[in-house]
Known about the structure:
The chain is mainly α. It is built from four helices and no strands.
Amino acid sequence: MIGGPTGITEALPEVQEALRGFLARHWENWLDSKLPALRFETPRQAAKTPAGRERLEALFAEFACHARHATQPELAPDVAELRARLGM
């Protein structure tokens, strides 16, 4: 790339807005996606049982670990928001 890669914080406002919209849709859909890490339950289904919540917490811990090491942490999921959406 000319001038090197840029992060979302350095991107044009319209690019930032498009990326925020994409991420919002992704995480909204994620709530209803069957995930191998949750034994093919959706996060909404998993949040209803103690075992499912335990698996979700492990997944959230993994998200947090990846966010700490990310080159663009602003792209990491908002775990607090996901927990709130799941009633956890």
